[in-house]
Fold this sequence. Notes:
Elements: H1 3-6, E1 7-18, E2 21-32, E3 36-41, H2 47-55, E4 61-66, E5 69-70, H3 76-82, E6 84-87, H4 99-105, H5 112-125, H6 127-131, H7 142-154, E7 160-164, H8 172-187, E8 191-196, H9 199-205, E9 208-213, E10 216-222, H10 223-227, H11 230-236
Parallel strand pairs: 3-8, 3-9, 6-7, 7-8
Antiparallel strand pairs: 1-2, 1-4, 4-5, 9-10
Bound molecules: adenosine-5'-triphosphate.
Adenosine-5'-triphosphate binds at residues 18, 23, 41, 43-49, 197.
Amino acid sequence: MNPAVSVLLRVTSAHVAYGKVEAVRAVSIEVARDEIVTIIGANGAGKTTLLNAIMGILPLRGRVTFAGQDLARLEIEDRVAAGLSLVPEHRELFGSMNVEDNLQLGAFRVARAVAAYSIERVYALFPRLKERRKQLAGTLSGGEQQMLAMGRALMGAPKLLMLDEPSLGLAPIIVADIFRIISELRASGVSVLLVEQNAQAALQVADRAYVMELGEFILDGAAKDIASNQRVAASYLGLSHEGASAV
Ligand code: ATP
């Protein structure tokens, strides 16, 4: 296959700074169509900063292309229209609106017929949201709120869904559910860029992984190779060096 066709997101030599402090330095990353890619790393490594810059929330120095289009001049809403979507770490739902109204907000740019199709698709992925469609978002459990945030992003029919710490603060059984749904997304033609501190779960679901430390990528490769890497196992998976390969 022509690699230019299969690459959906390509970030080349990205730098993102808060004032004089560079939080992301010379980072390059690719996500192909039908791929789940994860970025793992400790608190403060720069993962959220990178996602926000790709979305256009923060200014980025470097080059970002999406589906072959240069994003430099595109506002956030135009990036959404191009098929890029971000589920932020704090979910940012409208707590005093019900589930269905929150979902409809995610479809404000798409045609009515697409929205009608999307909502059925979201309810098929998250039957719990259908059961609770008239419930106020603010009264949902943490796991349900995460599902709603993902569902709302899917209403815009994205080609690439960027997820920032979807498992944060959730019970293990709900985390398993969220990761199962992430795999289902790939099967339905949505690529995923996943930022996670739960490296174990992220590496199980992902095809490829990047390891971020202090604003830079120090390692990347197939998720199964990263999972068996000695340094990753010791730093991020809570495992001893035995059975893991050296960097
Ligand atoms: P976390 O898992 O805690 O979100 P992260 O890997 O996503 O971590 P970032 O939140 O991107 O990391 O933070 C990267 C660096 O940028 C950190 O040193 C952080 O203190 C700094 N930083 C983040 N947001 C700001 C901000 N608004 N102003 C200044 N510095 C910031």
